[in-house]
Write a structure and sequence with these properties.
InterPro entries: YicC-like_C, YicC-like_N, YicC/YloC-like. One of its GO terms (molecular function) is hydrolase activity. Belongs to the YicC/YloC family. Keywords: Endonuclease, Hydrolase, Nuclease. The strands form 2 sheets. A 4-stranded mixed beta sheet has the order 1-2-4-3. With 294 residues, the chain is of the alpha+beta class. It contains 9 helices and 6 strands. The protein has helices spanning 43-57, 81-97, 105-116, 131-178, 181-198, 205-218, 222-241, 246-267, 270-290, and strands at residues 7-15, 18-27, 32-37, 60-70, 77-79, 122-124. Helix 2 (81-97) packs across helix 3 (105-116) and helix 4 (131-178) runs antiparallel to helix 7 (222-241). Helices cover 64% and strands 14% of the residues. 23% of the residues are buried.
Length: 294
Amino acid sequence: MVVSMTGYGKAEVTSGNRKYTVEVRSLNGKNCDISLKSSLLPKDKDLEFRQYLTHHLVRGNIDVFLTSENVSGSEARRIDPELFRDYFRQLSGICESLNLDPHQDFMASILSSSVLRLPDVVAADKNELNEEDLEAISGAMHKAVDALTAFRIKEGAVLRNDLQTRVDNILSILSEAEAYEAERVPAIRQRITARMEELALEPDHDRLEQEMIFYLEKLDVNEEKVRLRQHCRYFTDTMDAEECPGRKLGFIAQEMGREINTLGSKSNHAGMQKCVVRMKDELEKIKEQVLNVL
């Protein structure tokens, strides 16, 4: 079954007064490379989610985004008392060095308002995740992965049709090339004979015929045509039978390329060589598409 490595899935869930959004994006890649772009998850859950993603998505460059937002209308703010006291103590010391009394009401008010504007004194509540939040996020992760998988399957159906069209085109062009077989051997024989006449050579006819047969056997492409057709059938069978055929399809495409190249080197005919170029063009498109197959 052909499944694309490219996909996108998104899911949202609400837990308490916060909404969590999980987005999963996947592009083609040789292995399963996962990037979890969130600081919300504890380390043990990070490992658990990576194992889940590896098991279900198998391969690809996978980016996971986890974000949260408050749905109660206002963000909880928190004052760090230790940091506040430390800043206030430092500012009071500066005031005393300038002969200012930090204990006067108006001066204490100024110092307090100044401290509240200093870095990290007032911050949003970290809202650490509890078990209920983690369970909700895990459910959203599963839904996002399911959505991405459905996306991959849909894209895979388009990929499969395109790949099959390319394979069928190669077989069709190969049949066109066979039409030149009837004229190819006589043309080669005539060319060799004409060249010998130009050189005014008078070879032994029996020996010439033996050498001619040996030479023409070396240019025979029947084995290459048979193997190329076998590779094309194997390519189609693998697409339909294998669960994750991407790597194997790449290897089969390489074998198809070897047979096409040998056909080109042996053809010794302009018409056949044009067919070989067209088959190579189709094969390159196959190789490009196979890179996206899971």
